[in-house]
Write the structure tokens for this entry.
Amino acid sequence: MLTGVILAGGKSSRMGQNKALMYLNGDPMISYVIDAMLDLVDEIVISVAKGSSADYDEFSEIGFEVVEDDQEGIGPLEGLTCALRSARGEYVLVSPCDTPFLKRELCDAMIVRAAGRDGAVPVVRGLYEPLHGAFRRTAAIEAFKKAAGQGKRKPVEAFAGLDLVIMEEKELRGIDPELESFWNLNNPEDLRKAEQKLREAMRQQTALEES
């Protein structure tokens, strides 16, 4: 069994409201990430901030599990650990909610590369993309709990305790040439650019279908 986890517990301070539920070209931003994962995983878990699960009723009503952080203000390590505890899959595919151009092919590649190891994580420009990856659930929970017990708040601070496959930028660009999967929409200007990009893609698709 394989679980997809979408991290939606951030404060969205630069956007001014909950990014996951902001509408992008007519759909909540999180729905684009769901679409990228849906055909690959057996279940989807949405990790949200403590006290905010009611905001996601429309998703729980269609069968997705919504899991709140146990504690407030701890950071993504807390949300990821809580989500992993609720997951049922041996492996867990992870992405943040604000990456609407996440490629299904990249998700699939992370799953394939993680097999037999504790996980697979992407590296772009020499740095981890720490909220993306695929992890063996039991190993990741152990490593993340240990890191949290040491006062750490970021998943990357637990990576040393895991047997991970590092997906380098060259490999990633072979799947997603422009690395659009890692474009986080952080502010209203990003949202505007994403709207424009989606509209242009729709125009191109319509023109292709009519030709």
Remarks:
- The domain at 2-210 is CATH 3.90.550.10 (Spore Coat Polysaccharide Biosynthesis Protein SpsA; Chain A).
- The helical segments are 29-38, 57-60, 76-86, 104-114, 137-149, 169-175, 188-210.
- The first strand starts at residue 2 and ends at 8.
